[in-house]
Amino acid sequence: MKFIEVIYSHKKWTRSNNETYQERLVRLEGDKESLVLQVSVLTDQVEAQGEKIRDLESSLEEHHHKLISTEEMLQQELFSRTSLETQKLELVDEVSYLKLKLVGMEEEHNHIAEQEKHHKAEVLLQELHILKSKVEDLEGEKSQYERKLKATKVISKFESLTFYVDCFLLTGKAEKTDDSTLSDLSPMSSGVESGQQSPVSPEDKKNQKSIQKLWGKIRRTQSGSLPADGSDSDFKRGGFRATAGPRLTCPGTSASARDMNAPFSKWSCDQVCAWMEEFGLVQYVNMARQWVTSGQTLLSSQDIEKELGIKHPLHRKKLQLALRSFSTKITEKSSELDHIWVTRWLDDIGLPQYKDQFSEGRVDGRMLQYLTVNDLLFLKVTSQLHHLSIKCAIHVLHVNKFDPSCLKRRPGDENKTSPSEVVQWSNHRVMEWLRSVDLAEYAPNLRGSGVHGGLIILEPRFNSDTLAMLLNIPPQKTLLRRHLATNFNMLVGSQAQQEKQEYLESSGYTPLTTTAKVRPRKMGFSSFGHRKKRTDDSTDYICPLDASQAQALLNGANRPYSGFRGLSPIFDRDPQRREQVGDLQI
After folding, report:
1. What 3-state DSSP class applies to 363?
2. Could you give the 3-state DSSP secondary structure of residue 422?
3. Which residues contact 503 (CB under 8 A, 6 or more apart)?
4. What are phi and psi of 449, to 5 degrees?
5. Rg for the chain, CA atoms, rounded
6. Phi, psi angles (nearest 5°) of residue 432
7. Residue 409: CB partners within 8 Å, gap ≥ 6?
8. DSSP states of 278-318 as a string?
9. pLDDT tens for the 586 residues of the chain, in order
10. 583 vs 203, 226, 384, 516, 576, CA distance in Å?
C-alpha cells in the first residue's frame, strides 16, 4: 500500500512537476521572445550609436583638418606680418635717412645761399669803392682842369695887358724923348721932383690901376706859383687846392674814423658818417652829411628821425640806444653782437623764418637786450610760443653775459647731461637728442618751431605733451608718447619737472598751442598823448631784469639755473604783462 501510495504520489508529483515545467517553459519562451525583442532593439540602438560615433569621428577629423589649415594660415600670417614689420622698419629708417639728408641739404643750401649773398655783397662793395675812387679821380681832374683854365685865362690877360703896355710905352717914346716922361709912365716908378714931372692923363691912371688890380688877383689866387708846364705834370691827391670841392667817403676813411680816442661829441662829420655806415645805418649817411657837424649834433638833437629821414621804428631805437650808451659812457657786452650775429642766433634757437625781418630792422645784441613785445609784433612775430622762445633765449644770453658762443650746437655725452647744460642747447642740439632716444624720424619737425634748451627748461608750460604736439606724434601712439615723456623727464631733471607739474596743477593753467597769438597792448584814451614818454619803460621789455636779478648776474652765480623761479623771467608778477602775453587770439 505504501508502495502504491508512493507510486501514486510520485505520479502526482511528476504530473504537477510537468505542469510546472511547461509553465516555466512557456514563461521562459515568453522571456526569450522579450529578450530577443530587447536584443533586436538594443542592436538597433547600438547600430544607431555606432553611426553617430562614426559621424562624430568624421566631423572630428574634419575639424582637425580645419585646425591644421588654420594653424598653417596663422603661421603664414605671422610670417607676412613679421616681413611687413621689417619692411616698415626699413622704410622708417629710409624715411628718417631721407629726412636727415633733406635737412643736411637744406642747411647746405642755406649755407651756399649765405655765401653767395656774402660774395655778392663783397662784389657790390668792391664795385662801390671802385665807383667812389673813380668819382674822386673825376673830381680831382675837374678841379685840375678848372685851375689850368683859370691859369691860362690869367696868363692870356697878362700877355694882352703887357702888349698894351708895350704899345703905350712905344707911343709915349715917340711923343716925348726925355727920360723923366718915361719914368712917369711906368707903374713901378717911385717918382722924383714934382717940377720935373709932366702931368699924367686919365687914361694913363686907368691903365696903372688895371695893372695893379691884375697883380693883386695873381697874388691872391697864387697862380704865379703854378709851374709853366702844368699840363705835363701828374696830378697828386692832397696837393694845391685838392680839397676845394666836395669829397665822397672812400674806404680809407673808415680806418681813420675807427681810431677814435676822443669822446663822441668831438667826432667830426666824417667820423660820425663812417660809424653809421659800420653800424648798419648806411641808408642815412647822405642825410647825415648834410646835417651833422659833429657828434654833439646827434647827442643834443630831439628830432633825429626827422632830420635823418628815419621812418623805421627799430632803426630809430637802434640809434637811440647807441647814443644813450655814448652819453652814459657805459659799454654793454651786448653791443659787441651785430645784426649779422643775430640772424645766426635765430637759426640756433629754431626761428630762421624771421631772419629777413630782423635783418631789415638791423636788430643787434643791444636791441635784443631791450626788445619789447610791440617790437616783436612789428617784426611779424605773433605766435605766443615764438615769443616765449625768444624770451627764454634772451634770458640765456643775459645769464651768460651775452657770450656769442654760449649756445651748444654739437652733441656730447648723452648719459651725462644736467639741466644747466640743457638750457644752453640750440635747436640743432635738441634734434640730435631726439635722434639719440630713437625718435629720429620726428626730429626734422622741430625746424622752425623755436624749441631750444632754454625754452624746454625755463618755460613751465612746456612739457612732454607740448613737445609731442610739435613733433606731430599722434595721440593714438600712447607707447611712443610715454617713451618721449620718460626721456623728457630725465632730461629736464627733478626740479624743473616739479615746477612744471605745479604749474600744470594750478587753477589758471592753459596749455601751449601752436595757434595761440599775442595781442598788442591795450592802450587807454589817456595814454595816446604819452606814447613817446613810455618808450623806455622796462615793463615793456620781452625779457626784463629787476635789480635783484641784475645783481645776481653781475655777481656771477655758480649755478645760475639752479633756482628757476629766482632767475627765470617766465614767472611774471605783472598782471598786465600776463594779460598781453598770455591771452590768446585764435
Report:
1. coil
2. helix
3. 460, 461, 509
4. -90, -20
5. 55
6. -65, -35
7. 348, 426, 428, 429
8. HTT-GGGHHHHHHH-SBHHHHHH-S-HHHHHT---HHHHHH
9. 667 777 777 666 666 777 788 888 888 888 889 999 999 999 999 999 999 999 999 999 999 999 999 999 999 999 999 999 999 999 998 998 999 999 989 988 888 988 888 888 888 888 888 888 888 888 888 887 787 787 777 776 676 676 666 656 655 544 444 444 333 433 333 333 333 334 444 444 445 555 555 545 444 444 333 433 444 444 443 333 333 333 333 333 444 444 446 888 889 999 999 999 888 898 999 988 998 888 888 888 888 888 888 999 999 999 999 999 988 888 888 888 999 999 999 999 999 999 999 999 999 999 999 999 999 999 999 999 999 999 999 999 999 999 999 998 877 766 677 888 999 999 999 999 999 999 999 999 999 999 999 999 999 999 999 999 999 999 999 999 999 999 999 999 889 888 998 888 888 888 888 889 988 766 554 444 444 444 444 447 787 765 445 444 444 444 444 444 333 444 443 444 444 444 433 3
10. 97, 79, 9, 8, 10
- Report yes or no on whether pTM surpasses 0.70: no
CA 380, 567, 347, 279 torsion: positive or negative?
positive
| DSSP 8-state code for residue 372 | B
Residue (of 399, 384, 539, 544) closest to 449 by Cα position: 384
Residues facing residue 425 across a β-bridge: 408
Burial class (CB in 10 A: 0-12, 13-18, 19+), 231: exposed
Q: Give the type of residue at 543.
A: C
Name every residue whose Cβ is closer than 8 Å to that of residue 37 and which is 6 or more positions away in sequence: none
CA distances from 288 to 72, 253, 306, 320, 324 (A): 89, 16, 11, 15, 18
Instruction: Output the nine-digit C-alpha cell for 497.
Output: 619737472
Contact 156, 214 (CB under 8 A): no
Number of H helices, E strands in the chain: 22, 0
